[in-house]
Amino acid sequence: MEALRRGDPARVGPYRLEGRLGEGGMGQVFLGISPGGRQVAVKLIRGEHAADPHFRARFAREVDAARRVGGFHTAQVVDADAEAEAPWMATAFVPGPSLRDRIAGDGPLDPGAVRRLGAALAEGLAAIHACGLVHRDLKPGNVIMSPDGPRIIDFGIARAADADPLTVDGAVIGTYTFMAPEQVRGERTGPPADVFALGCVLVYAATGQGPFDASTVPAVVHRVLHEDPPLNGLPVSLARAVAACLSKDPRARPAVPALVGHLTSSPPGPLPDPPVRPPAASAPTAPPGTLVATTEAGNAPDVTSKRRVARRAVLLGAVAATTAGGAGALIAARRGERTRGPAATVQLGPAATLTGHGGAVEAVAFSPDGRLLASGSSGDDAPRIWDVSTARPLRTLDGARVRGAAFSPDGRLLATAHVDPYAVLWDVASGRKIRTFRTERYSVFTVAFSPDGRTLATGNPDVRLWDIQTGRATVYDTGPLTRNPQGDPAPHTVVKAEFSPDGKTLAAALTGYGDDGDGRGAVLIWDVATRRRLALFRGPTEETLSLAFGRGGALIATCGGSDEISLWDVAARRITATLTGHLDEVRAVACSKDGTTLASCGLDRTVRLWDVATRRATAVLTGHTELLDTLALGPDGTTVAAGGGEDDKSVRIWKVR
């Protein structure tokens, strides 16, 4: 138990608080004293959640579930107020450490103790299921090793066994390292999901590790869905029972009463056949549709087939000196408000798949009316223009390897950025090459038209604004160089450039910015008319791979180097929110024309749509088989295109209505 911290309440309801017992995603747990001197555990919902009706409903369900079970199997609820300004619940205080703390302090249990633990937890689950409930978050942290036997606690995500598979806000909630495959996939979960979790807990108790532990959450998900658990640390008789609990098919798992009898018999007899259950609902075989709201960090092979090498690593040739300049403000990244997500309401597969490229797709762009889509690959010499309604190619352009694409505001021109040091301007109607904009020695990674269509921005390693009519370029200073491991200067990489909606400012995303040893990615913003640098936003990671203006230019979304999206307030020059929900690195972001819908994609093979105002996810788009490296959002925010991955070589189109 910890002492109370500054800011902790002295009382909750009629209970005087004496110390802290723990905390979790929903709130803190305190040791309280009743007016008559009895010890209770008081769970107090966090202030930031108290105004959220979804959290209040979840808390009320927890109170109801714990009251329905009661007895020796959980901590008895003695008082609660789910309608208080800060909702709370008081349960009888159960002394003892959690199973997680017991294993961390004393090491794994011996086989006999594991069997006794399994029998006690199975008995507790039987009582829970007899009340028509499924716990859904059985894990070592939710098992109290009290003197009179293990108790199962925390009914925060328990639900009726016949309830719909998703919570009110649409997120799969639980702890991935102890979660059944059907729960990971967001399907209906029943008592067999708790049996699977019980098997995971017993492996943890016997070995000190979960059966699906790995270094990242995507790897945990992959192992839960596709790999057999290693059970070589368990005695044979116990391993058979645990293996049955950990069956991928919920119909093959033993019933809880059968487990109680098996674990308490000596010697243990064979497990009876699993109960006859209706066939499980059909489900995807891979994790892209999974929604994330974990209550404990997973330890978890990378579900992505391969990681794309950082874009700055492909820069070749000698270094051209660039000088630092401009009086723009340097803004260090701060995480801001973290928005847990996604609270998705829609999960969709693709409406169309466009094939034909010879390599990884690195560029997609919608025309202003949303009727056409341009795509390009760094693995072939054939950028394409597609009819979105028919998903058929209209023409293949006679180009070279492509890294970026953009339509002009009137839709008549298409610009492409190339692996070789130039950008090309095309006539969309005829497919004719109009002009080539040549740089010096580096690949061009990005192209962007100004809102008036008169100027084309290109990037890497500097930013240039080209006059469409004359072909003349104006260079915008990108500042200091990075340093390679030998200490020699090397250019940072400009991987994305975008004009603000009013065309007055230009923003560029850079990887590994600066020569001060920090090496973080950055966003540079200039005044287009004066070329004066207005701000430098130093990102939270070494790579800023993409950016997008939102809310009419008041906001910039960035990503790269992590599974998070940073939302920058341009006027305040700081990160005001961080969007989480992707299972691996986010590689690209895009915003709808009206600035209200944000799209993101990355190494977890999904595209996610976000409401910019509420900062909540509204859809998870699945179906791509490899990492996603580029995406485009149609002008009305309801059509999405994305591509990436050396083996897939295709573009997926989703329609969200």
Radius of gyration, in Å, reads 28 Å
**C-alpha end-to-end distance:** 51 Å
| Total DSSP helices | 9
Q: Helical residue percent?
A: 10-25%
The CATH class of the largest domain is Mainly Beta
Q: Which residue ranges are poorly predicted, with pLDDT under 50 across at least 5 consecutive positions?
A: 160-173, 276-328, 340-345
Return the CATH architecture of the largest domain.
7 Propeller
CATH overall fold name of the largest domain: Methylamine Dehydrogenase, Chain H
Compute the average pLDDT: 80
* Beta-strand content: 25-35%
Main β-sheet, spatial strand arrangement: 1-2-3-4-6-5
* Count of strand segments: 43
CATH homologous superfamily (4th level) name of the largest domain: YVTN repeat-like/Quinoprotein amine dehydrogenase
Shape: elongated
Number of folding domains?
3
Largest sheet: 6 strands, antiparallel
Structural class: alpha+beta
Tell me which oligomeric state these chains represent: single chain
Please outline the helices and strands.
Layout: E1 11-12, E2 15-23, E3 27-33, E4 39-45, H1 47-50, H2 53-69, E5 77-81, E6 88-92, H3 99-106, H4 111-130, E7 133-134, E8 143-146, E9 149-152, E10 159-160, H5 181-184, H6 191-207, H7 217-226, H8 236-245, H9 256-264, E11 329-332, E12 337-339, E13 346-348, E14 352-354, E15 361-366, E16 372-377, E17 384-387, E18 392-396, E19 402-407, E20 413-418, E21 422-427, E22 433-438, E23 446-449, E24 455-459, E25 463-467, E26 473-476, E27 482-483, E28 489-490, E29 493-499, E30 505-511, E31 522-527, E32 533-538, E33 546-550, E34 555-559, E35 564-569, E36 574-580, E37 586-591, E38 597-602, E39 607-611, E40 616-621, E41 630-633, E42 639-643, E43 651-655
Parallel strand pairs: 11-32, 12-36, 13-40
Antiparallel strand pairs: 1-2, 2-3, 3-4, 4-6, 5-6, 7-10, 8-9, 14-43, 15-16, 16-17, 17-18, 19-20, 20-21, 21-22, 23-24, 24-25, 25-26, 27-28, 29-30, 30-31, 31-32, 33-34, 34-35, 35-36, 37-38, 38-39, 39-40, 41-42, 42-43
Helix pairs in contact: 4-6, 4-9, 6-8
